[in-house]
Amino acid sequence: MNKRGFASDNNAGVHPEILRAIEDVNGGHVIAYGDDPYTMRVISGMKQIFGEDSEIFFVFTGTAANVLGLSAVTQPYHAVICPETSHIHVDECGAPEKFTGCKLLDVKTPDGKLNLELIASQMQGIGFEHHVQPRVVSITQSTEMGTIYTPEEIRAIADYAHEQGMYLHMDGARISNAAAALDCGFNAFTGEAGVDVLSFGGTKNGMMYGEAVVFFHKALCADFKYRRKQGMQLASKMRYIAAQFEAFLQNDLWKKNAMHANRMASKLHDEVSAIAGIEITQKVQSNAVFARIPSRLIPILQEQYFFYVWDEPTSEVRWMCSYDTQEEDIDGFCSLLRSLMGS
Hints:
By secondary structure, the chain is of the alpha/beta class. It is 38% helix and 16% strand.
């Protein structure tokens, strides 16, 4: 068995209940491309979460969900305002800009979160044909820094965006960790808070693959089925994505997984923050811990518990906990770190 590290919640395996759900739908023949009873049942169930006016479309990856969701509400002369740490800006190889034609206006933030002042700083050249026109504000929940927007913060951003004739997009790759931390349902900080387009992810929380693009207004997705097909994201055997979402949402599996990952991050934070010479750099609100450690220790630690360096010049690292992280993993890692620090 490969040793569990703290590199990414993507590195964890598939939850056994998700695997069983895939096997359960594997028998017999059903109509392809989403016209099967499993997919229709799951979409109906998700509408109960996000509202009957919502529309849900399954895709393969988070990048595809973000790109296609943004493309549905933009034209190539538009701009998307986002944090400089956002996945669409840093980790999608320019796909949002290539496939939407839009310019990303990335904003420096201290904690990965946008606020009204930061958004307003990008509202320039409105109506001036020489400038791209801001059309979407994109936020991530939970953020790439592990921080979380409250429903009130999201509502304020949504209201401002709508007043400016803009839309609010949410990258929800780790939406379960945010919902578990906030102790509320998904819709409390998405549709009910004014989000227009959501990338709803489960891969980082126990699923094998598959994401959902959720539109909260039908008018925004009138032609989305064509965008999904043209974007090479229409799964022929869609029942296997649908089955994962059904198991993920049933009996609050998503919440159990996310709460565990969050608890492990909290434990990791408590343990490492007690070690002299370690500086925690972000609030630990979900399943991520950011810290500065002596650079000489990084490769030694990575040999046994792999993780990523977030900012090499400042020796800031990121430790991610997953649904399958165990206390013994944290104990072993912290014991090694203490010994290397001479504690």
